[in-house]
Amino acid sequence: MRALLGAVPGLEIIEGAPLRDYTRFGIGGPARLLADASSEPALVEALRVIHTSGGQHTVIGGGTNLIVSDDGFPGVVLRYARQTIQIEGARMRVAAGAVLQQLVDSAIAAGLRGLETMTGIPGWVGGAIYGNAGAYGHSIHERVESVRFFDGVSVREIGNAACQFRYRESVFKRQKHWIIVSAVLRLDRAEPAELRATAEGILKIRNEKYPPSMRCAGSIFKNLLLVELPAAVQARIPERVVREGKVPSAYFLELAGAKGMVNGGVRVATYHANLIYNQAGGTALEVRQLIAELKHRVRNQFGIELQEEVQYV
User: Fold this and answer.
1) CATH entry 3.40.50.720 includes domain 85-194
2) Is the dihedral of CA 276, 282, 285, 286 positive or negative?
3) pLDDT tens by residue, 16-61
4) Where in the chain do CATH 3.30.465.10 domains reside?
5) Catalytic site residue 219?
6) Which distant-in-sequence residues (6+ apart) come within 8 Å of 92 by Cβ?
7) CATH 3.30.43.10, domain 2-80, yes or no
8) 286 is catalytic
9) Would you call 53 a catalytic residue per the annotation?
10) Most buried residue, 92, 111, 195, 276, by CB count within 10 Å?
């Protein structure tokens, strides 16, 4: 497999790559091969080689929302690493491998409104679209005009509606063999200084909650839609807790005693019940055990099932 992939132009390969170095959690064993594709043809050819050889593979992005097994991955971990950002009037075409913060900064510098509330969110653009990332009442789907992706047979492009965006969801989460390669975003004109001020205010708050040096994946669990909760649970929730029709998972977790819980080298923050971080040499097993315990507590106390935002490899 190594020799076959090594013959693909535009593919950079590392054997035995420690995946802990490619995730924000700082957790995960080695990949047999880590392959970075710098172009669409390289991505398509790499997948053809893998499928023809019958090898295992998984596709990841910036690794900010991943819990990788302590055993690592026995096949090829593939990343689409192209990072181009093109601005055409009020539109931006951005490659999936671009760092989300670079996209946000580019939009602000160009005087384009619509992404500034996502400042400080780590990761790559492809992952942000995959999980419909967002913050402060806005999500990236609001600005997506179309998404280009490889469906296993050919590269094609679909519009916003076909992406089936919902809260922290998209069609790409259900069609996991579809690999995002780029997207076109439509933004609005605005003064760069105004956008920069908004972004700086948000970044200050975000860095206090999620310090850049903290080895974590941000919020572990999705927030819950109020209308989807059982009536008995809705009746127990103070009005002040509800934000844009959602109830923070942290509300239920705090009442379940999550804050400050420790399992080996991982713990729940003392100031935020929906934040698990790698305190000192934590393992994926310890993270999963802690997640399972938190879900169990909330299920027993409230009769509801929390869903992870994080993805597993």
Assistant:
1) no
2) negative
3) 999 999 999 999 999 999 999 999 999 999 999 999 998 899 999 9
4) 85-194
5) yes
6) 85, 86, 103, 106, 107, 112, 184, 185, 187
7) yes
8) no
9) no
10) 276
